[in-house]
Amino acid sequence: LVSNHGGRQLDGARSSIDVLEEVVNELRRNGADEKRFEVYVDGGIRRGTDVFKALALGARAVGVGRGVLYGMVEYGEKGAERYLGLLREEFEGCMRMMGVRNVREIRRDMVERRIGGIFAEVEKTQ
Order of strands, edge to edge, in the sheet holding 40-42? Predict the structure, then answer.
């Protein structure tokens, strides 16, 4: 599980999605059998596009606790269900725009990695 456990209290701490690819690559580099391990990411997943990015960077699944919790606090079970429905709709819309029919078709090259975080300056490759 890749998570900073809501731990952005440290000024400058990297988000879970910012370190996700490094964690997956390190596991591979150390000979982890990808058929025997799964990587999950928790934290910072708010939209369906975030789910897509996490899967493209190597996550098997994502945690979405905060959004579900907010939905429940305001509207009970129906609020949680509505949030999950919206998340799914956004994710499926993103998949359609990226031209993939199922999660197995999501590839790493479908997202652009950026220096200093997923939304910072584009990494220059030579």
Answer: 2-3, 40-42, 61-63
The DSSP 8-state label assigned to residue 111 in this structure reads: S
At residue 44, the pLDDT reads 79
Which residues are catalytic, by number? 5
Q: pLDDT digits over 52-108, tens only?
A: 999 999 999 999 988 999 999 999 999 999 999 999 999 999 999 999 999 999 999
Q: Write down how long the chain is.
A: 126
Token output for 83: 């949030």
Phi, psi (rounded to 5 degrees) for 74 = -80, -40
Give the DSSP letter of residue 2.
Answer: E
Enter the tokens of residue 108: 């790493």
Find tokens 């997202």 and name the residue: 111
Hey, is 20 helix, strand or coil? helix
Question: Is the Cα torsion angle 44, 47, 53, 57 positive or negative in sign?
Answer: positive
Separation of first and last alpha carbons in the chain: 33
Radius of gyration from C-alpha coordinates of the chain: 16
